Structures are given as structure tokens and as C-alpha cells.
Amino acid sequence: MKLRILVVDDEKTIADLVGIYLRNEGYEVTIAYTGADAASLILSREFDLAILDVMLPDIDGFELLRTIRADHTYPVIMLTARDAPADKIEGLSLGADDYVVKPFRPLVLVARVKAQLRRYTSYGSRDEQGSRIISINGLEINPDAHSVTVDGKEVRCTPIEYSILLHLAENRGRVVPVEDLFRAVWNEEFMPGSNNTIMVHIRHLREKIGDDAQNPRFIKNIWGVGYTIEG
């Protein structure tokens, strides 16, 4: 079955061009030119990834992102003509997985889409190997089922949040440098601003697993070095 992608942009030329490139890669693409149409689609259909323009004439992309994150964990890539760090932080804070600044090369966006979908489909699939549950102080991660629980309660993580948690858990007792964590999870070179990206996702992850940054039960920040889970 084809993976389903929602593309939202009020610039019809851009939306249609992105749609052409994605359909050429074998994806099922639905396009919305307004925030209202996009909101209706988000609430009525299932998608595997969304590409949201921030600057829409009615409902902006950040509000659409909030709507998605209320019920869904599939990847979201934000498109924007604004390159201000504050805009990127806002998008990441609301649960965006990636951020692409206009103008962009369509093939670069396609590569970002493929990377996010690889992570998402892996996160949602099951491994054929035997069960291997990682248990640390009430936190349980089942890599085969791609599930997370804390004190027996299920935690819904986005694919990136899950990847961060799993990487730290697999390296428990060792401090993972920020640069190594970024490369392992995003599979990209560490760049200026990458640290902020990690910090935002770690903050979301802590909120979900009930971890206090001031007195952490699970994820500890070793200032100037990286993060660790002791166990």
C-alpha cells in the first residue's frame, strides 16, 4: 500500500510541484491550498506524513501542527519563508520533526521526506527477532514492538522521540555526546542550531515520560557534554 502524504501550501505552484515529485516516488499525495481544507483532511483521513506551510492565509501551519499532534504521531515537516531561529524553535516545540526553508530544491525535500518515513515505518513495524525489553527504573522499551511504557502506562512517542530514548537506553550508563546523538537519530552532520533541536525534543520526551529536568529520574543532562540514562 502506498504511503500517504498531505501537502499544505497556499502557493499553488509550489504545492503542485511538490506533489509531482512525491508522486513520482510512488507516494499517494493529497494537496490542500488552505488551512481550513487541511484541517478538515487531518480530522477525516489517515496520513503517514504531512508537509505544512507556516504562512497560510487562514489557519497557519503551527495551528495545523497542534491539530495533528492532538491525536497523531506521524512525521511533520514545516515549510517556511522565514529563517528566524524563533520560528524553528516554535515548530519543534509543537512537535514538528523537520523544518525546510523556502526557497528549497524539491529533491532535497523528497530526501527529507524519505528519511522521516523510514524512521516512521520502522517505528511502526515489528521485528522478527525475539523479544528484547529494555527495563530501566520503571521505564520499559520494547524495540521489537516499538513501544514505551513508564510504570506500566503506555507512552505515545513520535518516531524521533522514540529514537532518542532508544539510543540513550541502549547506551545506558554512558554519556552520549550531543553531536553523536544528533548523528545517530537524524543521520545528518551536527550543525549550529542542532543542539537546540535536540533540547526541544528532549523536553517533549521528558514531559511524556514524567521526567523532571531538575531532578531527573531517567534522562540526565551532563552540561557541555551530552545526555545519559543511568541504569
Automatic annotation (TrEMBL):
<dbReference type="InterPro" id="IPR036388">
    <property type="entry name" value="WH-like_DNA-bd_sf"/>
</dbReference>
<dbReference type="GO" id="GO:0006355">
    <property type="term" value="P:regulation of DNA-templated transcription"/>
</dbReference>
<dbReference type="Pfam" id="PF00486">
    <property type="entry name" value="Trans_reg_C"/>
</dbReference>
<dbReference type="InterPro" id="IPR039420">
    <property type="entry name" value="WalR-like"/>
</dbReference>
<feature type="domain" description="Response regulatory">
    <location>
        <begin position="4"/>
        <end position="117"/>
    </location>
</feature>
<dbReference type="Pfam" id="PF00072">
    <property type="entry name" value="Response_reg"/>
</dbReference>
<dbReference type="InterPro" id="IPR001789">
    <property type="entry name" value="Sig_transdc_resp-reg_receiver"/>
</dbReference>
<keyword id="KW-0804">Transcription</keyword>
<dbReference type="GO" id="GO:0000976">
    <property type="term" value="F:transcription cis-regulatory region binding"/>
</dbReference>
<keyword id="KW-0238">DNA-binding</keyword>
<dbReference type="GO" id="GO:0000156">
    <property type="term" value="F:phosphorelay response regulator activity"/>
</dbReference>
<dbReference type="GO" id="GO:0032993">
    <property type="term" value="C:protein-DNA complex"/>
</dbReference>
<dbReference type="GO" id="GO:0005829">
    <property type="term" value="C:cytosol"/>
</dbReference>
<dbReference type="InterPro" id="IPR011006">
    <property type="entry name" value="CheY-like_superfamily"/>
</dbReference>
<feature type="modified residue" description="4-aspartylphosphate">
    <location>
        <position position="53"/>
    </location>
</feature>
<keyword id="KW-0902">Two-component regulatory system</keyword>
<dbReference type="InterPro" id="IPR016032">
    <property type="entry name" value="Sig_transdc_resp-reg_C-effctor"/>
</dbReference>
<protein>
    <submittedName>
        <fullName>DNA-binding response regulator</fullName>
    </submittedName>
</protein>
<feature type="DNA-binding region" description="OmpR/PhoB-type">
    <location>
        <begin position="131"/>
        <end position="231"/>
    </location>
</feature>
<keyword id="KW-0597">Phosphoprotein</keyword>
<keyword id="KW-0805">Transcription regulation</keyword>
<feature type="domain" description="OmpR/PhoB-type">
    <location>
        <begin position="131"/>
        <end position="231"/>
    </location>
</feature>
<dbReference type="InterPro" id="IPR001867">
    <property type="entry name" value="OmpR/PhoB-type_DNA-bd"/>
</dbReference>
